[in-house]
Amino acid sequence: MPHQVISVNSSEPKTIEVKKKSFFTFFLTALLGATVNFISQIFYRKAFNFDTSVLLGYLTATVVSFIPTKNYAFSAKETGNTGREAVKFLVIALIAWGVQVGTAVATLEWVANPYFPSVSLFWREKTSHVVGMGFSFLANYFGHKLLTFRSTGMYDKFTGRSGRGTE
């Protein structure tokens, strides 16, 4: 029986491993942000309504998670474009915030309240908030991966600058 030699592209497994590592590291930085978001939202809820407390928790987490996301999740520590990346990070964060708040409020009003009225309001709100955070995680990951820590030329177009260095 003859032996077959199969050629394997050695760069492909490395690419898959890098993608897995990037996603896992983003997950860990997102976990930090989610923890800050979740805990701070509980404190904000004492002074504000549900919608506002979710917003404030999200904004607090966004500020706390920028540097870990930049340096560890996307290995963009040495890009020299922190200002540009911060602007893009904020834009993606605002979009993901809309996803989070919209999903959390919709889950609370359309699922948790009508289907689980015997569960305490605290737990209906927390569960709805976590559902919103899950959808926000996906919006953040793909937004930051495809835009924030990648050179797209959009920043230069938006600011009217052209050909002034790399992003």
UniProtKB/TrEMBL annotation:
The keyword 4Fe-4S does not apply. It is found in: Membrane. Coiled coil: none annotated. InterPro entries: GtrA_DPMS_TM. Residues 26-149 form the GtrA/DPMS transmembrane domain. The chain crosses the membrane at residues 23-43, 55-74, 86-108, 128-147. GO terms for biological process: polysaccharide biosynthetic process. The keyword Cell membrane does not apply. GO terms for cellular component: membrane. Keywords: Membrane, Transmembrane, Transmembrane helix. It is a multi-pass membrane protein. It holds the Pfam family GtrA_DPMS_TM. This is GtrA family protein. The lineage of its organism: Bacteria, Pseudomonadati, Bacteroidota, Cytophagia, Cytophagales.
